[in-house]
Amino acid sequence: MTHYVILEGVIAFFLIAGGAFTFIGSLGMAHLRDFYMRLHGPTKATTLGIGCMLIASMLYFWVTEGKPDIQEMLITLFLFITAPVSAHLLAKTGLHMQLMHVDKTRGKPLELYEEEVGEKPVPHPDKGHG
Amino acid sequence: MITPRAWLPTPLLSLLLLIVWLLLVRSMAFGHVLLGAVLGIAIPLVTRRFWDDQPMVRKPWLLLRFVLRVLIDIIIANLQVSWIIINPWRRTRPAFIEYPLTLEHSFPITLLANTISLTPGTVSANLRMDGRTLLIHVLDMDDENALIEEIRERYEQPLKEIYEC
Predict the structure, then answer these.
(1) How many domains does chain A have?
(2) Which pTM was predicted?
(3) CA dist B154 → A29, B116, B122 (Å)
(4) Which family does it belong to (chain B) (predicted)?
């Protein structure tokens, strides 16, 4: 019986860790300073949070049903494919809309210059900006 | 004579489709393996016109090592970003940096951009139209050159070995 208690503890640990990471990711989205920084929270912390929850789920059903089931890995796989792509598209949209960034941000990309609007599709000839 | 290259252009993708199918139906029955194999061969053939032609994976073992390294890095990056968010005395040093790419094909570049987004406090923001530089937003940056160097040897170099040597 005692190993059930240990497994319960492990499952609970993963659930709490998952919840904490997801919460921190959402918190980052709520209170970091500018759009580009806010993007970091959901893309990273949330990935690990969901991962922890899925591990807990896999363990739980392994213990209760008696056979391992790795179907939940699919969710992780799809998440790993979609999360960075959506982050990239959001960042790209932010650059296109020329959203403000905090003053201390170093480096000013060409995309945020005023005169660059409307000329995006041409290759930028100059390298080494900033 | 039909070469394997003609009806199995992307063996890894076919294998992945088969595994996904088996996981989706939650069964290892022979019929499902067969159906998954048929789907894994048919789907890449039907959709091949939408794809750029992809470079072959030269060294699958290196790919496996790369995936493991990225998984570990994801955990570390998560802890770092979480700490930056909840640390009340945080002093972040955000920055935009331009990463000069040395990869040629679009698929490895996509992989690299996704890896960068998932790992160390960086989000890939824009791939320039000329395909030569990647714009990256960094949450907390010490030194631009050190970061570029780290990305180059941790992620880009393995990808280059896997796909283009």
Answers:
(1) 1
(2) 0.75
(3) 28, 11, 14
(4) Belongs to the CPA3 antiporters (TC 2.A.63) subunit E family.
